[in-house]
Amino acid sequence: MTQASSDDIKERLRSILRCLIDYKKTLMKDTLTSQVPNHINVVKTTLRRQCNILTEFMKTREMPDNPDTDLLICLNCLSPLLTPWDMDLSIVCPDLCKGIFVDSDFNMSDSIIEKIIENYCPTLDDVSYVEEENIQTV
Which residues in the chain come in under a pLDDT of 70? Predict the structure, then answer.
């Protein structure tokens, strides 16, 4: 993998994470309307449902039927970042979406974005670099 394409992947991933985290912030603002402990189940269900919609979009690039305004903003944000198709991003992004929306206690700040980039991009770079070396030696 060349340095330019490695930087491009990192920037695309950084922007994708911003889209996802901004959308989660919007959902949390709209769903956290009470202090009732049972309300957490409603929030978790909403986050899980939206995560499923987003990951399906990331995999198929097909718009869901009748997305609400906030979801549409997120999908429109993601769409150009997922093109052109990239093997690394196609694997990592749905997993990160699940981490952000379902499995996460992410603080949803820019610092978490940089930590994710640090954690995921070396793996992406190493895999791509090894594959590139193998192709050149054949």
Answer: 1-5, 30-35, 104-110, 122-138
CA pair distance 8, 89, nearest whole angstrom: 11
Reference 99, options 32, 30, 24; nearest CA is 24
For the chain, give every domain's residue range: 3-137
Alpha helices in the chain, H assignment, sequence order:
3-31, 39-60, 69-81, 87-101, 110-137
CA 73 and chain centroid, separation: 14
- Please state, in angstroms and as integers, the Cα–Cα distance from residue 48 to each residue in 72, 101, 103, following that order: 17, 6, 9
